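Technical note accompanying the year-one report. For the benefit of new consortium partners, we illustrate the data format agreed upon in the data management plan: each record pairs a sequence with a structure-token string. No post-processing was applied to the example shown here.
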Amino acid sequence: MGLFSKEDCVFCGTEVGMLKRSKLQTKEYICNDCKRKTNPFARMDYTSKDNAQRMMDTLAQEAADFEASFDSAENRFQSAERSFKTWDLGNHRVQYRCNTRLGAFQIISENHSRYEHVPVFYFDTMIPYRFADDNPNLADFRNSEIMDSNAEYVTVKEEKDMDGKLTGCTVIIPYNDICIREIKLNGNVSDENDKDVFYDLADRINSDRKAWINNGIYDTERKNRMQMRNLKDTAAAVVKAAASGGSVEDAVKQGIDTANAIEEGKVKQGFFGKLFRK
């Protein structure tokens, strides 16, 4: 096959030249139009045909679910900003927003303006890529990495010329996805002062990740308190039913139903410890 030969896109069948296609990990070709339906940060040489199709099938729904998550976000640790915040990374504008209740965030890069969907990324995947993740023996180790609130996973790499002058910076977000090993947001800088915005964005994402972890810890503790309250209420209801000739079975069933509702987030606790259905 010559340098200027044409190949068929494995998805739409269009015959395209070298400048209008990418080669997938599985050695098939994807045209630029179909590629724009995938995640703009995915590397095609890491992406199989099946995984490219998965992105095409799920990106729109993930974005819709993320948008809907802002309506249900709540509690004092929650940080959910529906509007995007903008960082000018030298000559590269980036927009970012996050819902720490959901544990997800979005990034819009002006370099990817022709892509069809704004991708959603998840904090429980935002750790350095490990090829051994499928090993069940490493599951606990991976979980400890995810829940490490001291880890500053997002970093900034500085580029300098031969004279040691700073010429550019790159925000690097590690990502443990088969198609995305890291997300890079780079831009040119003219002096040392220009690099602050890169570190500011990195700090923001790291801070949001920590807020998500704290939010999860708070949720777990709150559910444990509510379950203990429900256990006491159920025991009292059973004693009352037995003493008054009521249905002990119904009292137990109500306690089980409430316990399940607590786990599903359908119950909240009032100021005086009473449990209420949402």
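Partners are asked to follow this layout when depositing records. DSSP finds five helices and 13 strands in the chain.
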